[in-house]
Amino acid sequence: MFGTTVVTFGVHRAGTALLLGALALLPACSTQSSAASPSPSPIDTSPPAEVARPSPDVGRPPGGSVFVIVMENRTSREALAQPYTAGLAARYALATDYHAVAHPSLPNYLALTSGTTYNVGDDGYHRLPAGGLGSQLTQRAIPWRAYMQGMGPDCLSDRGRYALKHDPFPFYGGTCPPNVVSFDSLDADLAAGTPRFAWITPDLCNDGHDCSSTVADAFLRGLVPKVLASPAWTSGGTLLLVWDEDDGSSTNQVAAIVASPRLRAHRSARPYDHYSLLATVEDLLGVPRLGRAAAAQAMDDLL
Length: 303
What we know:
Number of strands: 11
CATH topology: Alkaline Phosphatase, subunit A
Number of domains: 1
Structural class: alpha/beta
Order of helices and strands: HEEHHEHHEEHEHHEEEEHE
CATH class: Alpha Beta
Distance between the termini: 97 Å
Largest sheet: 9 strands, mixed
Helix content: 25-40%
């Protein structure tokens, strides 16, 4: 009887100790779980400020247009392994230390056109404050167009290979600016009437997002010579070819090529990013810099 009582008491004490130990661990486990899954940052709805800066003297004759082509999801090494892209880099100017600013696509497109990501960390639609580069140009009566391959009648709707997440302009103010047009308009505009600023977004295949690097390089082989043959480029224009992000790495290094008829082949090892490209575009167009572009180093050594 005595032995039985001792055993029963020992089990009771052991069970109590285990229970108290488990309860003591609960706050620590709860804290660890909360730290591992932080709440996403709220979208920043503050419009980026404009900061006026003197435009650099880059020898651009009046009338030359600024072209921006944005490709998708390739490291600098991968993009420059393609024959046509590599040829452009060898013939004109290449930034060898250029980095995207985020993953996934959308925040990079916002950075390129407004100088901020607005804390966006996804590819969903967010109605942001009116503004951005397009609004700047419209307010100053500077002609501009964004050519979207595959876009249907409504630029706010994904359609086929057109992806809204690759068209930043409808995010500002939640409407489709009349300057956002079908890619089919580009050939006629290059022949006559090219706007002062031309943004070009290929579709999900031709930009390399859904298709191979070979397909994307072939698309550039068909498009870029048309741009370089246009009066808007030959009269002192500038083409900036860039990739929105790499394939998901932490370094996020991408290729950025600058082509202008006045350039000799050269490279720059300066550290640049999407804010640098926006600063360069705004300086060339003579408008104040937006957001983080104000403090960014313009890509002037490539010009």
